[in-house]
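Continuing the series of single-chain predictions for the mutant panel. This is the parent chain; the variants come on the following pages.
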Amino acid sequence: MASDITSLFKASVKTVRTRNKGLVGGKEAGNSSILSHARNKTEFATRARDVANNISKLKDFLLQHRKDYINAASHLISDTSGMTDAERDQIDTDAQQFMRTCSETIRMFKEEVLKQTVSAQVRSHREAVFELLQDYLKAVCKLYSEQRAVRVKRVVEKKRISRLQPNQPALANSLHPPATSTPAKPTQDPGSPDLELTNQEGEEEEFSPEEVQMFEQENKRLFNEMNCLVDEVRQIEGKVVEITKLQEIFTDKVLQQEADIDRIADTVVATTENIKEGNEDIREAIKNNAGFRVWILFFLVMCSFSLLFLDWYS
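Parent structure:
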């Protein structure tokens, strides 16, 4: 049969709390916690968190202005919150500088920390933290690269549209030619009232075969130009996507080279230490060999003197 031991548990908790109060010198140890407080954060944890917070600020900034940044046609609509091209260029400059600064900060921080003498477990933990920071920075760099690729693509589309705009009035004129292009076929005297009344009423006349052929040629030319522009835009889009992929690969390779350089630097430091230890061992061996030779020489000299003494004595 189960028994209720709640009162016993509460008494045990009260005893532990009283003992903790006595251990801390009478200070308040906590109203609801019987465990000791967490240890203070180390300098490494504080600096790593600062770096992660800086990268998060860049990510939040890019996501906050993503809509205005990639909207290259914001000036064509009545949007007071639109972003100008100068502001987009400034965002590109600041973001690239900030990413380079973060990468350099992580590299210097890693070099400084790995020089410290710590246990293998702590070193493994710190290396994992650095790897997480670098992966986080890579993700933010990829986000920026994608936004920049979308912006470049829309800028290309905007330029294509701007190139087509001057041709639109010509197309309109070709579809609606002015009255002066229509040859007049007066049947009456130019000064007669009947002819003036006919001109005021805007009587429509048919186009001649030469004019129809000219309009068809103009339409074909405009159609071919538009097809050429579409092909150029598609080629540029493919190049932009390829450039974005190359930029991502370049970013990964740069970060990988930084890791390789750090590893080579550590190897060089370890090799230098090994060379120093080897030189010390060689010096010690030379000293030991010199002492051994001195003792052999001393033994031979004593043997010679002993033989001379025995010969003299006999």
